[in-house]
Design a protein that fits this description.
By secondary structure, the chain is α+β, with helices and mostly antiparallel strands. The chain has one domain. It is built from 7 helices and 15 strands. The strands form 6 sheets. It has a 4-stranded antiparallel beta sheet, with no helix packed on it. It has a 3-stranded antiparallel beta sheet with strand order 12-9-15. It has a two-stranded antiparallel sheet with strand order 1-8. Strand 5 and strand 6 form a beta hairpin.
Length: about 300
């Protein structure tokens, strides 16, 4: 997701997805729906990743933020191509970490991004032009999200929330019909016989690993930060924006700004994170999801 209407990203970060689920829970179940979602996330009974792209049935994960020793020296064009890669097919992760993968093997052309010009006609005396950035996925491409759960009944609630979220849309300008999606498939990782899902399930449960790749935008609690930073290689992303709630304030108010570790960051020490209240003086709490989902990796 983007920081303004004029910019767009093809992935949706976990905190944005969680906030959208909270709005949907409010619509479907009232305030009790939000509290149930918050409590499940806060206790660790429910986790979500950033969205992960897929292409032609191949699941992709964020390119890990780690230095790679390669078999051969790279040409200038190959180095440039690797810098542009944001995600890797999970089946090629070992090859990438071994330094044997070619940049073209990533094949991470998922979508086209472009900007359209619009005109705001709400003021009859003065039209106001503005621009909206859009993302169109290619055929056989899209996004997936990993949901961790302990209670199967609650999982059914989450499925319902995601389906309804797709009907209403996620992101900017949903009132204009943008951000809608369909749920194409639900896969239980531990029950799948497909190789990429077996690998993914092993990585999600691999706490005793050489290192861990973060796949949800997340932030450690203050008391966890020093441990998390030891030996970590990471990127950061700013999380801010306005509160999207008519009951929060009579005028638009901003959320508290925080800087989160971004997907693809690599850690040796795990952390739990939190669901943070980022409201600034409004009528109710405003939650930002900052709980991590890690993939455990062992070098071969």
């Amino acid at each position: 997701m983007a920081t303004s209407l004029e910019t767009a990203d093809f992935v949706i970060r976990a905190d944005t997805f969680f906030s959208a689920l909270c709005h949907t829970a409010l619509d479907l179940f009232g305030e009790e729906g939000i509290e149930r979602l918050y409590n499940a996330a806060k206790s660790g009974e429910f986790r979500i990743s950033d969205t992960l792209p897929y292409k032609d049935g191949k699941l992709y994960i964020p390119k890990p933020n780690i230095s790679i020793k390669r078999e051969n020296d790279l040409s200038y064009d190959e180095r440039k191509a690797f810098r542009k890669i944001s995600h890797l097919p999970i089946l090629l992760l070992d090859k990438y970490l071994a330094g044997a993968m070619k940049p073209q093997e990533a094949d991470c052309d998922f979508c086209i991004q472009y900007v359209v010009d619009k005109v705001n006609l709400r003021n009859p005396k003065k039209s106001e032009p503005y621009s909206v950035a859009l993302v169109d996925f290619h055929d056989n491409c899209g996004l997936s999200v990993i949901v961790g759960y302990e209670d199967k009944d609650f999982l059914e609630v989450v499925k319902r929330l995601i389906i309804h979220l797709g009907i209403g849309g996620i992101g900017g300008k949903v009132s204009s019909g943008y951000g809608k999606f369909d749920v194409a498939e639900v896969v239980e990782l531990k029950e799948s016989a497909e190789e990429q899902y077996l690998i993914l399930n092993d990585m999600l449960t691999g706490t005793d690993s050489d290192f861990h790749i973060l796949i949800s935008t997340a932030l450690p609690r203050d008391e966890e930060l020093d441990s998390a930073m030891q030996g970590a290689t990471f990127g950061m992303t700013r999380r801010g924006g306005f509160v999207q709630s008519v009951s929060y304030s009579n005028t638009p108010l901003k959320k508290k700004t925080q800087y989160f570790f971004s997907s693809g960051s690599v850690f040796h020490n795990l952390f739990e994170g939190d669901v943070y209240d980022v409201g600034l003086g409004g009528n109710h709490a405003v939650y930002r999801y900052g709980i991590p989902v890690f993939l455990g990796v062992n070098r071969k």
